[in-house]
Amino acid sequence: TLCTAEVEKRVENSRVTCYTLKSIAQLDDTTYTQPTLLAFDIETYNPNKQMSDPAQHPIIQLSLYGAGFEKVITWKDVNGYGPSVEVVENEEELLKKFAQYVNVKQPDILTGYFSDGFDFPYILKRAQKHKIKLDINLDYTSPRFGRGNQSSVEMTGIIHLDILNFIRRVTRMNLKTDSLKLDAVAQELLGEKKNEIDIENLAEYWDNSDPKLAEFAKYCLKDSQLTYEITQMLMPNIVEFVKLISLPIADIVKMRFAQFVEWYLIKRAQEVNMLIPNKPGRTTLYERQGQHVEGAFVYEPKPGIYDDVVVFDFRSLYPSIIVAHNISPETLNAPSEHKEIVPGHPDMWFATDRDGFFSTILEEIMNRRGRIKAMMKTADEKKKKLLDARQYSLKILLNSFYGYLGFFGARWYSKECAAAVTAYGRYHIHQVINKAEAEGFKVIYSDTDSIFITLDGRTYEEAMDFVDRINAELPEMMELEPEGFYKTALFVSARGEEGGAKKRYALCDEQGNVIIKGFEAVRRNTSYIAKEVQTQVIKTLLRTKNTQEATSYLKEVIKNLREKKIPNEKLVIVTQLTKPIEDYASIGPHVAVARQMRQRGERVEPGSFIRYIVRPGKGKISDRVSVPELTPEGDYDAEYYIDNQVIPAVERIFEVFNIDVKQLADKRNQSSLQSFF
After folding, report:
1. CATH number at residue 567
2. Among the listed ranges 252-266, 280-294, 330-344, 596-610, which one has the minimum average pLDDT value?
């Protein structure tokens, strides 16, 4: 933000002039959203396809990319290098040249992709091995590992930003991709991909001085380019969080949602001279972890297909409840003649004769976000992008407050406040359900903040009138909004139960657009073919209700699987590695593949998404899985995919229509499949 400051010049051993700050004041709301970026990436020597070890394996290529600048530094000359490639004597000179370019460019931000976890630590360890002072900090010192944490690298005067940290903690919730690898994220955010190359055999090409090293140089530079462009794209969002929470970028990008809330509360508490609670001690943390809060109400649906469905949502239900009912730790059970008793909790109330800390803050955030969204309607594209980043940061903060209240590590932890929020949520949703049924609407489903009703001969306008009457009775700040009208809706049964599965439904609007919630089609750990089949079956049944068309399609897929006509790329299963490989007591398919990847020198860590294909053979599944890249086309276990992926994905959907799809997959019925109906 643009500020005016009173300063005093000081003498420092620094590449830039330093000042002592005496006073500072904000001039206006102008935001510095385009700091100077310089992205970097390295390629390392990996003999016999093993994982590179900084103790013994050198860096053989290092790329840099910035505005109007691109460079690849390497120390083996071959034919075919482009003008951006600079060849030096050895790795030691490569590291010195890296430092030279950073010092000349003096970027505001040095950014990498997984640079906290790999690139920067590797560079520092190789510099230590060569006894090189990598003096790229503005005070002529070298970058350092974060205190007590070998997984972060800090700089002085320049921000080191591992953009993967921000993507992993904030951006990923809006990404469709299962993988957070640079290639997948770049493809979704930028529409670009990494260069395809045989990276596993880099060491072999290096040893043989193969001209193909020129292609590896392009590959390395492309990684830096993609990192630069992703960072540039996400910078407005990062800057908004910096402005909102008033902490450095290097801290912001590593924060989780609860930390956003806590540091924002600390900032606001200081503004009103409120005492800041201490962090909980170990004993308190242990006690809190055993405490639980009753959750939201769910009106379970009956499995079936429904016509003319209207869906309503409470706008920002939990934040609006906190504001409407003045929920805050210091108003909880506070002595007062004016208090509001929590529904279902006669011994719990909130004072209403004073404004709560939490409720005041949330009301300000909600109003501010509303004003920004209104401004977006008339803003030009450049301004709209900045405003969108601003409202998005407020949305993240707003929706994190309820979870923070019940987070065992929170300074302002209050199980009672968290319980009160969900109690009010249940109360308000029950009120809407009861009033809807009293007015003759049929309620088919409700969960947390939404309610689904069928018109059953009533008009859409009558449903809107009903919502208007509800809103007239709700407390200020609370509002029930129409989410959409759908011609058909499908609810399936829960596994092993008669009732409908929670959060598991599909909707089709008047234009034929289908929304799928909770099915395998929107989950990981499911092969692409299973997702594809499930999605197509759902769309067919919702749009046409033609069961014969849906079963014919399913039969054709089963036939193509057995004839190996389905391409390998559709058989890929993606599973996340949740802990270090060594910590797994049992070896599942994804762990087995992760081991294979590590043996080939690939980086595998907790949080990595492991892709694999199940191949034919006997024995455990984990003994016959491999990465897609090393699986010959058509070399997959068709029966595994039919019995364990495709059929389970559609079985409960067809149950709604009293169709047993297992018969379709039974080889004994193959001769009669064509006459199934």
Report:
1. 1.10.132.60
2. 596-610
